[in-house]
């Protein structure tokens, strides 16, 4: 067996029924599409994925020992078991133009995984993943809630998000300190947001930097034009704005000029 390594966020799922439920959460239209599993570890999800998606399955894990184990147990996948860091690897050659992502993510880098997915958003059609429950709830949170944050806005701009179910720490080896949650993201048909997307990201990030401040104060470092500063919306906090309101604010800021992106 593979010895769990803490620094790689390894907590192996023991419960086969939960593994099956996670795999079953992938939408039916993924058949025929490439499926990328991030962090397969000892393959608890892989065993269920292989039934439906064998020809299209690609695995990536950073852990040499896990990769060795997987290569031994999933002979048919051979060169589609990749040893590497999802955050750094260029997977275009193996994944093509469109793919779905599944995984019991390493919790210590789940936010970074989502920033990477956002960079690849026009290829990543769907994501089904398990992560720390608290983070899972934050990502799907609607505005007007203290859980709503940078990644909630950025992801919800491009994905329809759904919280599926909670998984108890006791079904992992070793058990993590926190509960886990499974979520599903489905790419919406938003190709462009209708604003400068680089500025949008900057406004969202800056707005949440000091989430208890009004946007007027939180966005000070952006040197907003006076006519934008006078607007009512700047009396509010970032956590109360919907994606569309952030888009509108971004456009107002851009049309006011003198903002360096
Ligand atoms: N899917 C398995 C293992 C989950 S633990 C299960 O459910 O039991 C998380 C897995 O992610 C581990 O196998 C770990 O080696 C892998 N991992 C950690 N960091 C990674 C990275 N940067 N890129 C790819 N895989 C990573």
From TrEMBL:
Its main location: cytoplasm. Keywords: Cytoplasm, Methyltransferase, RNA-binding, rRNA processing, S-adenosyl-L-methionine, Transferase. InterPro entries: KsgA/Erm, rRNA_Ade_diMease-like_C, rRNA_Ade_methylase_Trfase_N, rRNA_adenine_dimethylase, SAM-dependent_MTases_sf. PANTHER family: DIMETHYLADENOSINE TRANSFERASE, DIMETHYLADENOSINE TRANSFERASE-RELATED. Belongs to the class I-like SAM-binding methyltransferase superfamily. rRNA adenine N(6)-methyltransferase family. RsmA subfamily. HAMAP family: 16SrRNA_methyltr_A. This is Ribosomal RNA small subunit methyltransferase A. The lineage of its organism: Bacteria, Pseudomonadati, Bacteroidota, Cytophagia, Cytophagales. The gene is rsmA.
């Amino acid at each position: 067996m593979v010895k769990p390594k803490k620094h790689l966020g390894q907590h192996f799922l023991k419960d086969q029924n939960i593994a099956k439920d996670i795999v079953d959460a992938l939408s039916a239209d993924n058949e025929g599409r490439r499926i990328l599993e991030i962090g397969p570890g000892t393959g608890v999800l892989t065993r269920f994925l292989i039934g439906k998606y064998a020809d299209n399955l690609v695995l990536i894990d950073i852990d040499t020992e896990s990769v060795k184990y997987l290569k031994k147990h999933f002979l048919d996948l051979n060169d589609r078991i990749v040893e590497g860091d999802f955050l750094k690897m260029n997977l275009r050659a193996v994944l093509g133009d469109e793919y779905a992502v599944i995984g019991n993510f390493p919790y210590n880098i789940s936010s970074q995984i989502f920033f990477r997915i956002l960079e690849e958003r026009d290829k990543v059609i769907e994501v089904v993943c398990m992560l720390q429950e608290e983070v899972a709830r934050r990502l799907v949170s609607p505005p007007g809630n203290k859980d709503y944050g940078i990644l909630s806005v950025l992801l919800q701009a491009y994905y329809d998000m759904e919280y599926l179910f909670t998984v108890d720490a006791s079904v992992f080896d070793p058990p993590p300190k926190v509960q886990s949650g499974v979520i599903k993201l489905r790419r919406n048909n938003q190709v462009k947001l209708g604003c400068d997307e680089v500025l949008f990201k900057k406004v969202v990030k800056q707005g949440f930097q000091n989430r208890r401040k009004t946007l007027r104060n939180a966005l000070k470092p952006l040197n907003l034009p006076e006519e934008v500063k006078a607007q009512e919306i700047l009396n509010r906090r970032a956590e109360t704005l919907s994606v569309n309101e952030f888009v509108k604010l971004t456009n107002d800021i851009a049309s006011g000029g003198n903002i360096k992106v």
